[in-house]
Amino acid sequence: KLLEVRKKSKTYAVCNTCNKLYDVKEIIPLLIKVLVVDGYIWRPKMLYPIPCLKTQIFTMYKRPGFEQLLRKWVDRDIGPE
Length: 81
Known about the structure:
Blueprint: E1 9-14, E2 21-23, E3 31-36, E4 39-44, E5 47-51, H1 53-62, H2 66-74
């Protein structure tokens, strides 16, 4: 919310045991049968949305003063190593 990252995202199914991410189209054991009006449909047990990186970066750069904050970070005083 702070970075305003909320647009386009790709959704993955998550394994409940190992938390590995899977493309929803490639998984069958991670699906559950859900009753709907016309019968049943298959849905993932758990979903994990990942926003598009390109959209996130574009949104961050559009924020007012973002480039100045980057310059401030680059020019910061770093103590002796």
